[in-house]
Structures are given as structure tokens and as C-alpha cells.
Amino acid sequence: MNKSRLEAFSDGVLAIIITIMVLELKAPPGDTLEALAAMRSTFLGYVLSFVYVGIYWNNHHHLMHTVHHVTGGIMWANLHLLFWLSLVPAVTAWADHYPSSPLPTALYGVVLLASALAWLVLQRAIIRAGGSLRRMIGADLKGKLSPLLYLTAIALSFVRTWAADAVYALVAALWFIPDRRIERRSGEGD
């Protein structure tokens, strides 16, 4: 398979995920600021999930620059990642409907954790296929710290959902600045 075909497919799936999330947003139930303010939880959940999908899209772009040959393992690992990311709209909507319920908040974290682990699987598949990714990612502190923070947030979901949400936002903040390790070391400028 051609690398650009894999990228185009992934870009399309991620665009559909964002489209599904935005379609979940509804107009406020009135024409007042109070009606709009009542939707702040919905909007913040959408923003957080949008940022997560955007982070994966941005870093996926950089990651694909290290691929010299697309193998079956890379294709399956990429599909594995896209599967977990495709669940983001569903868990975002469920957590929005029940913002103070532990289970939807925890399941949101489970999907984020599974996506992070799928990302690591994709990285390993690319490393196995050859190239310089291993040297480029180095110790990958953020990649190792994120799953631990997700596990912490999942546990916090059953104590204080707002604290779990804060940890999910913290992880997004860690990754909001695109991962420049690959770009810097590969000489990629776009």
C-alpha cells in the first residue's frame, strides 16, 4: 500500500469523527445568555474531544513521515488506533449527558487510554518496519506518562468526576504543542 493512501484514509476517518462530534452539538434551548451558559459543559466536552482528535491528527501526520514502507502490521495498527478514536464521539456524548456520573467519565478515560496504547502499538509497528523512528522519539516521556495519567483519571472518576476531567484536560495540554521530535530530527518542515 502507498503511504499517501494510508494517510488519506486516516485523515478521512478523523474528519468523520469530528463531524459526528459537531453534529451532537444542539442549539441552546432558548435565546438568552442563561440558555447558552447551560450548555457550557457540552461545549467544553466537545472542545476537549476535538483537541484530542486534533492532537492525534497532527502527530499522525508527523509519524507518517517516518514510514518508508507500509506493511500489513502498520495498516492493522493504524486501524486499531482509528477504531479507538472512532469511539470518542460516543463517549463524549455519554459523558455530556451524565457529567457527574462516574461510569461515563471513566469510560471516556478508557477510550483515551486505549487510543494512547494503540498509538504506542502503531509506533512499534513502524519501528519494526525499519527507518529512524526509534531514534527520533527517544525516551518518549509524554508517551509513557500519558497512560499513567489516564489510569489515574479513570480511578478518580469514581471519586470526583471533575478531578478526572481535569486530568484528561492536563494530558491534552501536555500534547497540545505538537510533538516536534520527529519533525526536528527528520528535517520535515511542513
UniProtKB/TrEMBL annotation:
Domain of life of the source: Bacteria
InterPro entries, alphabetized: TMEM175-like (IPR010617)
Gene Ontology molecular function: any one: potassium channel activity
Membrane-spanning residues: 7-25, 37-58, 70-94, 106-127, 148-177
Transport found in the keyword field: yes
Catalysed reaction, written as an equation: K(+)(in) = K(+)(out)
Bilayer topology: Multi-pass membrane protein
Compartment(s) of residence: Membrane
Principal subcellular localization: membrane
Keyword terms: Ion channel, Ion transport, Membrane, Potassium, Potassium channel, Potassium transport, Transmembrane, Transmembrane helix, Transport
GO cellular component term, pick one: membrane
Keyword Cell wall biogenesis/degradation: no
Protein family: Belongs to the TMEM175 family.
PANTHER family in UniProt: ENDOSOMAL/LYSOSOMAL POTASSIUM CHANNEL TMEM175, ENDOSOMAL_LYSOSOMAL PROTON CHANNEL TMEM175
Name assigned to this protein: Integral membrane protein
Lineage of the species this protein comes from: Bacteria, Pseudomonadati, Myxococcota, Myxococcia, Myxococcales
